[in-house]
Amino acid sequence: MKIAVLTGGGDCPGLNAVIRAVVRRGEQHGLEVMGVREGWRGLMDPPLHFRLTREATSGILHLGGTILGTSRTNPFKKPGGAEMVVRNLSALNVGAVVAIGGEDTLGVATKLHQMGVNVVGVPKTIDNDLSGTDLTFGFETAVQIATDAIDRLHSTAESHNRVIVCEVMGRHAGWIATHSGIAGGADVILIPEKPIDIDRVCEHIMRRHRTRGVNFSIVVVAEGAKLGGGESKASERLDEFGHIRLGGIGQQIAELIEKRTGYETRSTVLGHIQRGGTPTAFDRVLGTRFGVHAADMVAKQEWGKMAALRGTLIASVPLAEATAKLKTVDDAFFAVAEVFFG
Ligand code: F6P
Q1: Which residue lies with its CA nearest to atom 12 of ligand 1?
Q2: C-alpha distances out from residue 189 to 144, 167, 180, 222, Å
Q3: CATH code for the domain in which residue 20 is found
Q4: pLDDT tens digit sequence for 63-122
Q5: Using an 8 Å Cβ cutoff, are 164 and 266 in contact?
Q6: pTM above 0.90, yes or no
Q7: Count of structural domains, the chain
Q8: Closest ligand 1 atom number to CA of residue 102
């Protein structure tokens, strides 16, 4: 059978590890693998694809980004787009699609499956907000990058007696902020799940400076966190899935903290640094396990399912379950972070 592999949505460290594993395991199952360029866009007109072999995927395990390219193209947003994808798959004689992506890419996969396409999913997002799996690959790398940055911000904040606000990624869920904040010893962590109470934030910081004998603090904020119920958007531009381009909450928070506390406050935005570059060993292993499992799912014809981490094992879960609702930070976990606020 010929299968198509694509990567959609924001890129993520570990994508190449998954692609390599699908090809290597797929060849063992006698599958011919076709790489689709730029996500779902590559299955629309004209289709963009090339043959993926063991040789073509050699030496990519440690590389960031994706050799296939990616996009946020949503075929369901173009008139006749989904039908075009189905037609092209048939014209190319593709028997199944391995879609590597987050909620949007896998949401498209779910709908195509309902239209009769043989689909298998692999959960990708640095935000770690996909349901059905304990972790997505790429998340651990992003947390490590953010933690390294927070460590560096600590020493300069301390030297200058400053408050530093570090803005990390996390559109709907504060997983990166909470994990890197705990690991980096942040004094306050702000996440999309909890509207920001700026008075409380300032109280924490002032209490810390008054009672702990220190003159610096670190605040970690997820880019999707909202101030007092307001919006944290910095742009009106939307992508095809209707997402606003985020960024800017860190600077807003920094200005408010400085005004209310009188402490000099600066902000740093980590942005795409968290998504680029080489994956950690953990994400290379997780991506490899997901890729091998996805090829096995194709061999077993487990259509409409996604490879998932459940505890220490890799399992197959329904795509519909994975895309039904986002996995957000739970109160019990956030309570661990809160022990160290202020
Ligand atoms: O893929 C998830 C994510 O990293 C979000 O945290 C972020 O809001 C978004 O992608 C930004 O993506 P882009 O810059 O590609 O629009």
Answers
A1: 10
A2: 16, 10, 9, 8
A3: 3.40.50.450
A4: 999 999 999 999 999 999 999 999 999 999 999 999 999 999 999 999 999 999 999 999
A5: yes
A6: yes
A7: 2
A8: 1
